[in-house]
């Protein structure tokens, strides 16, 4: 386990999340240090994607009474994130508070979710200009640098549907990076891709992992990639952490039966 | 009752044409209302809190389920004359017609919005785009492609219903024909034939153009 001398950048404190009667997360707690790369593995329905969606505020935590004592709160960069402080007490965050806090968090989606009505360049500049209020020139120069980084500098004037899935996903990565996130969430980013396109996308992400100190949370079935980029792997099942360790140890010598079963199933695919 | 006469037709044509210009003006004003209001209603139904959304939906439902003619007569005789008797039949009629069709266009806009994948909203959230950018830069452009053909069809249907406003004294084509026949005791055949042909001449090219636009939009880049 990597030592955490600094404050955690992400802290889940007894977080609950239910969808109707279905309890996906039940009092989940964990911490992630700044600059860590953590891969979440586990069978589908184990809550991995829900964790990312909570951090992106696409889902909201299920509120707990008296959060000051009972938790149910997500903390980011030392401040409450799912909640906000008012009069010395924690209250469920308002939409306005969330809008301001989530700017430091970026996400890349399984289905890319590029804006199909905008050319590639504008996909990457739109939020820089309208969310971060950068000048058009600054945003374009940053977008061109990032598109160059992901190997798509010749595609700036294309529309997303003129690109392959792998190219679209690389644009989506550039779009997320353009916001200078402190935390990047990668939600099964290669699952929708044809096998021959996976390597390019993973290559780009490896580069980013090597050259930046962005904290990354990764949900993936690509165990080789998880092993390469992450310094911690958390195995989930039914909304709880079954086991967590360095990728070397968890992949070569998993301790828990559920981890062993899961890895055997995934690696035999 | 008598057959077709070219002389009467020549006499009545300029009058019917005057009525036709009025029809076009009403169509233009009512279209702007139907599109702007319909869009506004669709956005409210998508994003406003239930306390606002529900009454709006209910009111639109009410409009869709009562006849245009009744609405026109009701607003003219029971509402506008009491609020301000100076308002013209043209203004009141155009407003009611536009409102009536806004209840239909809003449904087409709503369907176009709902057809946009949820991931588009989520990407906008992930990028912290302000609400107005999410609507105007992401959602509405994608909605236009999906809703344009349906909305255009509503506007063509609306154009053909302008003669309803005859009931409150808008001097459109029927009113012009009746003025002529009232004075001359003849001219119905020529008058209504010309009125019908003018409608056809105007709506057919628009329908063809819309069909072309629909095909072009289907082939567009998104």
Q: What is the CATH top level name of chain B?
A: Mainly Alpha
CATH A-level architecture of chain A: 3-Layer(aba) Sandwich
DSSP strand count of chain A: 12
Shape of chain B: flat
- Read across the widest sheet of chain A, the strand sequence of neighbours is 8-9-10-3-11-12
SSE layout:
The complex is a heterodimer of chains A (269) and B (222).
Chain A: E1 8-19, E2 22-33, E3 37-41, H1 48-55, H2 67-70, E4 73-76, E5 79-80, E6 83-86, E7 89-92, H3 95-101, E8 105-108, H4 120-130, H5 136-149, H6 165-177, E9 183-187, H7 195-211, E10 215-219, H8 223-229, E11 232-237, E12 240-245, H9 247-252, H10 257-267
Parallel strand pairs in A: 3-10, 3-11, 8-9, 9-10
Antiparallel strand pairs in A: 1-2, 1-4, 4-5, 6-7, 11-12
Chain B: H1 6-47, H2 50-64, H3 68-83, H4 89-114, H5 118-126, H6 131-160, H7 173-184, H8 188-218
Structure description:
The complex is a heterodimer of chains A (269) and B (222). By secondary structure, chain A is of the alpha/beta class. In chain A, 36% of the residues lie in helices and 26% in strands. Chain A has one domain (8-267): Rossmann fold. Chain A contains 10 helices and 12 strands. In chain A, the strands form 3 sheets. Chain A has a 6-stranded mixed sheet, sandwiched between helices. In chain A, strands 2-1-4-5 form a 4-stranded antiparallel sheet, with no helix packed on it. Chain A is globular, with a radius of gyration of 19 Å. Chain B has a single domain, classed as MetI-like (MetI-like fold), CATH 1.10.3720.10. Chain B has 8 helices and no strands. Chain B has helices at residues 6-47, 50-64, 68-83, 89-114, 118-126, 131-160, 173-184, 188-218.
Which terms would index this structure?
heterodimer, A: 269 residues, alpha/beta, Rossmann fold, 6-stranded mixed beta sheet, 4-stranded antiparallel beta sheet, 12 strands, 36% helix, B: 222 residues, mainly alpha, MetI-like fold, 8 helices, flat
